[in-house]
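User: structure tokens for this one?
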Amino acid sequence: MAEGQGETEVEARNKVSESEVEESETDTSPAREQEESVGEALQDRASDDSSQTEAVLPSAGILDTDLLTVFRANWETVAWAVILVAAVVSRFYELGVRGMSHDESLHAVYSLDLYRRGTYQHNPMMHGPFLFHANAFIYFLFGVSDATARVMPALAGVGSIMAAWLFRRWIGRTGALLTALIFLFSPSILFHSRYIRNDIYIVFFSMMWIYFMFRYVEDRKTKWLYYTVTVMALGFAAKENQFMSGAIFGMFMVGAALWRWWTGKEQLRDSSFADIAVLLLTLVLPFAAPLGHLLLGWDALAYSTGLDLAKSAFLVLLMTGLSAAIAYWWFSPAQSGENGTESRDSDPQKPRITFGNWATFMALFWAIEILLFTTFFTNPVDGLASGVVGSLGYWLAQQAVKRGSQPWFYYIMQTLLYEFLPLFLSLGGLTLLVHRLRTGSWGGPVSEETGSTGTEEGSGDDSALSESESTQISSSVRPYFVTFLAWWVVGAWLSYSYAGEKMPWLTTHMAQPMAIFGGWWGAQVLHRIDWRRIRETQGWWLLALLPALLFTLATLAGSIPTGGRDLDTVSRTVRFIFALGLTGALSYCVYFAYLRSGWRLTLRLTAVTAFAILFLLTVRFSYLLTYVNYDMATEYLVYAHASPDVKRALQEIETISERTVGEREIQVSYDDDVAWPMSWYMRFYPNNIFYGANPTTEAMSAPVILVGKKNYDKVEPYVARDYVSRNYRLVWWPEESYKSSFDEEGVEIPLLDRIRRGLTDQERRSRLWQIFFFRNHSDQTLTEWPHRHDFRMYVHRDIADIVWDLNVVPKAGGGQSQPQSFNYEELDRRARVAYNGLYDGVALANPRSIAIGADGLRYILDTGNNRVVVLNADGSFRLAFGSTCLLAEGESGGCIDPDGTGPLDLGDGQFREPWGIAVDAGGTVFVADTWNGRIQAFDSRGYFLRKWGAFSIVAEEDLEPYALFGPRGLAVTPAGNLLVADTGNKRILEFSPRGEFIRQVGGGGIILGHFEEPVDVAIHPPTGNVLVSDAWNRRIQVLSSELVPLYEWLIPTWESQNIWDKPYIAVAADGTIYATDPQFAQVYVISSGGVVQSSFGKYGDDLNRFAKPTGIAVDPLTGELLVADADNHRVLVFAGN
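Assistant:
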């Protein structure tokens, strides 16, 4: 009982009677007029003190001012400084790393046009002109990039956070800090502060709009209306949902004015609320012309003809005249007040707005609108038509379209996923507000503003004003401001949920009022916690016990036994039992702490605990959304957004350009289906070609072609033969199964039933938890995400092989033979040994090819290390030779001159990604130095002997034999000549051991004697024929010893055109053929007559599995089979067949 009495006394000290509040609300003393803010009051006192103590001293210059007297640091100052730093870092960190989305690229491109050419025409589809002018200004200051295009939104995001400081006078210092903290980590606000959309501008302008309006309500100084009109105008020039904000704000002002009139506090014409309501209405009435179009059946978006313009002009002038009439009626010289009393014209402390003032406001508002919508009079007619009439007209039309087709509960879902913290706080605020409206108890001026009472020690939220000053400036307006916040929250929820168009970025406009309102309520809770009593009763245990209890309750809910004896059910049952026992123990501890602290203190500490938990979750989700999953469709705020593939493709194009023509001079053509965002990125490529939906010969001859999914069939005939391609994800959307669900009979399941099933069914509950907490969709992978729009990048075949490190998938040419049916046995063969140790101190890295000498030496082409490793027949290390040399780059590419002033050249004996190796009967080792475009010969000790070839692409009319484009497979003929698979030039070459050219065969195509990606060559001992792995034609082509084409054996599974999937072949003495299949991680065993008999291997790293098997060789002495298991960085040795 004593504890309860103590709480009652504390509560009593925090209350003030309704009559006291009403007195402060109607107080119009001169002191109130003289005090504008806490800062001004302090400044006046400081100046008075200084004038008394330093009157005899000369005035000091600004450079003589002591900084400590200018910046008076306290904990509040430190807190705001930390918030400012965090706001700047969080908004600007890696601002350009995310790819441009569809809408962002539109905004960025048209801003760029305004900056570079001074051309911009307002289009309501892209909302207001403010964004484009602001971005153009940033381009002027900082240049053009993804990051600079987002600078203005980031600045607006920082400004929105710091604007919370202005609300200290109405929600207290703690409330303002909490509001700024919520703004700082709000997922929707943070994400869209780094996004070129207009919504963050509306957030910032709304903050300033509210502040200036209520400052005018406080002291009725005209300057606040000038500021109000300015930010209003900028907001209406930013986005059309400012109309919605204006309606919410204006309706509150009307309601407040009527309430004060109804309760006898003041006459309507004396009401500053009424003045603001009339001002808001009359300023925006010309924008309401589209309503006249609707009534008259006209098209508000038609302004291409003189008649259309005349209709719109008529309605705009009509609305403007109506505005002037209303303003004249309201702001004209006042008549006698009601009941014979005088209006405030007679009160000098309440200066009345005159019609002349209104005309100035109107001129200011529309001067800003006209300048921006007409782009400073460069587009006067269309700009006025699309801005004044088209803005609201287009926005209203979009509500009927219902873009996104989202359900009525869409924002509830988004808020539960992201903005649960301000939702929780605002619900608490609504509860407290209802209580105060019913009881009339708003708390004394000191307890509300400073957060301290007679029994609360050191709460420290003092504004440095006297009690009378605080009452005059803050208390009279605070109830209306807090009620306004609640009205704003409810109004935003109702209006945006009712509107036809529901989009994720609009969530910011509900998060904003909830954050401010929630900040106020959070401060109220903190101010009413008796921290001294917590120390005395050890109530701080509750702060630890409550989260633990919540965790055990959540564990209980997720571990309800379902029956059964399987391991998962037993585990869940045991977890349930332990959680139940722990819940009981924690509940007892919480109850004991409750008995010591009382229910009020327990309830407040519970609220603080809930805030802390929700705040930490908000920080987590905000971080994941903004810095990890920023372009992943698993996030529900990532809507119609560019996938990560966009920047990957652009990086590949840049690499191609740098390796072929230098810089970004390569020609890139793109269609209308990828125009956004590619129009933004193609600004880097001066030779780009836009072909829209109609491919042209010029566009289809570009080295790189980008095409959206809708134009695949149009482009395919142009590129099927000569281009390789890869598919990418252009834009994607979150999964939307929440919209509706159907049972097995096709009947839609009601929403409540879906919620019930989701909460009661273990599997569905687990899936919902995975989505909520991890953003993980267990039934959908990102690679196969169904909600997406794809595009394809075609690269000319001649160029694709140059950029060897790109994962490009070639598009097969037309006219290919139908694959034969396979009927073979799959074997499980296990390697006898794996060569995967350290050789000369270095492990193998992506070995691509193998050769075995007549003496049994094993020559491994250690491609990743650009060397040859030679092992003895027993697998022991013998020697290694070779190193890295990018021949085209000379010494800067690692190339060295092996003998200084001797006969050898720079780079002799070095390699750049070699893919082929062979050894002749005399021990001469031949290496295909693939990306240096040459063949090198070495003796058995690894000493360089000679070289031939140069990196080049041959033309059909010039089949220069020494122009090699990515040579790979090598083979030595019975006559001792060397066969070379010149892969990039689609041919097979024969040279003498010394490099003299003998003959060639090939060229691109599918007919015999032509190749598409010939990778390897081998000799068929029984016949002497030449076998070629013609990879992209999915066959082994058989040539005579004179390279005359004979026939083909189809290998249908060689379907991959990935640049790493290069199949190699080897032939045993009895004619058995072995062929690797890197894509499917297997080796085929083929009869001497070309029939596939069996296969072995699957993907993995065991001794019976492979990862990209490429090179293959047969030991002529033992019959052992050696396979280069490239991505497992080893060579496997199998026993002979």
